[in-house]
Please model this.
Amino acid sequence: MTALSLEEISAQLESPNLRDRMVALANLRHVASEDALPLIKKVLNDDSLQLRSMAIFALGVKPTPESYPLLVKILENDPDYGIRADAAGALGYLGDARAFEILARTFYEDTDWLVRFSVAVALGNIKDPRAHAILVQALDSEEIVIQQAAIAALGEIKDIESVDLILRFAQSDDWLVRQRLAEALGNLPTPKSVSALKYLEKDSHSHVAEAARISLERLEAINSQ
Model:
């Protein structure tokens, strides 16, 4: 795909054809964040939810000083749960510690599981240790994907205190839960982590066993430093 100029992207974003607008927005990956922002803003309220989702993602990966307040406004006010979930995810991409409080409030107040899942992932991405209480609560979610996200995020924030709480998932029926556990334990250097990883290294699912092997190597490298 030939890269478009800023003028061509701007014009194409106003096309009545959704595909044209999507192609134009995709071309922003070649554009500096400051130049991309005004063009992203043109479609933040587009009629197409798919295009809005792409624009929100772009705000997260093309950070500018305006990205954070724009995403917070969307997360707090948009009526569409999918768009709110996108905004939470994009705040995670920004890696901005200011997002902790809004993400925490959203986790407790938003009733949609997809939004809460995105919040858990985002809390892992911003790596703020204050997320401990929220993520521990998320471990008891009825939604398995939220459990997966919480386990992964506890690993991302290197929450050693959570090791005892996540080890119960070594017996989970869901292999993705066991894989997330194996990956998380690689960031949590404790004797119990090593023991659990040696157990998971023998898991019947190859992805889990491989994740455990990699995490054991990571812990060995940490211990040898």
Summary: The chain has three domains: 1-64, 67-157, 167-225.
